[in-house]
Amino acid sequence: MAVYSLPKTFAPAEKLDPIIERYKAFRLLSLKQSPESFSSSYEREIAFPDETWIKRVCGPLSTNIIAVSGNPTGSEGNKEQERDLLLKEEWLASLTLSGPFDKEAAVAMFKNNMWIESPSIIMGDEIEFYFGLYAMYVAPNARGAGLGVSLVEYAKEKALEIVGGKKTRLVLVVDFDNIGARRTYEKGQFVLNHDYWFDDTRCGRAQRTQSAVMRVDIGGPDSLRKNTTP
């Protein structure tokens, strides 16, 4: 198993098209197989124009993380080999890292994309950047192997890489009764920040659902000292 973030650019540009199509197919499959796990739906996203899928993969504030069935080959960071593996091997799991956002942009993101009415509850005085985690999905045939934890750890490392190791908070929203998902995030050091109720329109769900807002803080000088202490 290998974990990669999808490339946002490639030369020539046409080489990115099959990656975008593969992402689209996997996302639609996840919505079909586990509709209760997402706030969106297959019917909504199958109607998206190509521009929407391109933006999801190539947008500056969106990093899509994918676990594939094959093993890494060659040197780390070889984009051609990573692309070949992403196209050749079976996709097993996915997670989207959204950001980075400064405090002002994070408030808008929490309200508009995570439906959190009181973002001040999540904000931290020493936090320089914020990211959101979305759309965790593990294919049925790959569950129970720890892929969710691998995706979360990769997302944390990627976030620190993007912001140069500065103090950062990752935030996610998960159904309170989704014990399996919450345990996965807890293994990645996420803690419950607060919970709230919302009107749930998803198929098979009750009219009102309780959501858990979870967060983890990473990076900053304290983290650097821990990593360099003998």
From TrEMBL:
Task: Tell me where on the tree of life, at the top rank, the source sits.
Answer: Eukaryota
Where is the N-acetyltransferase domain positioned along the sequence? 65-219
Xref: Gene3D superfamilies: 3.40.630.30
Database matches in InterPro entries: Acyl_CoA_acyltransferase (IPR016181), GNAT_dom (IPR000182)
GO MF annotation terms: acyltransferase activity, transferring groups other than amino-acyl groups
Q: What is this protein called?
A: N-acetyltransferase domain-containing protein
| Phylogenetic lineage | Eukaryota, Fungi, Dikarya, Ascomycota, Pezizomycotina
